[in-house]
Amino acid sequence: TYKIGIGKLLFLCLLIGVVLGAVVSNLFRGFFIDQFFLFDDSYINTLKTEELNHFVIFQMALIRHMKEFGLLCLLTTTMFGIPVFMFHVGYKGFSIGFIVSTAVMRYGMKGILFVLGYLFPHYLLLIPLYIILYFKGYEVNYRLYSKSVETRVRFANYIPYLFILIALIVVACFFEGYVNTSLLKKIMINLS
Fold this sequence. Notes:
Layout: H1 2-27, H2 29-35, H3 41-49, H4 54-76, H5 81-107, H6 110-119, H7 122-145, H8 159-191
Helix pairs in contact: 1-5, 4-5, 4-8, 5-6, 6-8, 7-8
């Protein structure tokens, strides 16, 4: 039953983040459209005209996501685990609200197409990955710091989850490096 509570809490953090991201994007409308690298004319021209090194993009994405995953797993075992999860979900929500709002301001409703190309298909794997990580991380944290539950945590029980989540990260990074960049390039050509 405690998982239902954390799910609602994290969903609330996500919604607050999305709303704040959209509000900030709209408040600073001109600055973000001109200065945000995703919408910078030189970045867009580079994306449209130059050949992309997909393997390098894959490597960069893998390093970024593994660092984030590793840090979240490590912080799960501390008393800061739950607040970090809440902040992380809020930050992801803020990013989504900000990017969607800025893309729509820049490209109109076609901006939604840009966002879909930017986030999918790799987020189809990352979203379940984070959901599993948050719930299993909460379970570990709850067992470590709750006075009403047996405090002994058998970390060996979580090793299969770690392998599954790492495999999901690798596949998601492959999609991000090879599929998303090609898809985004086609979308950017059609948007101009």
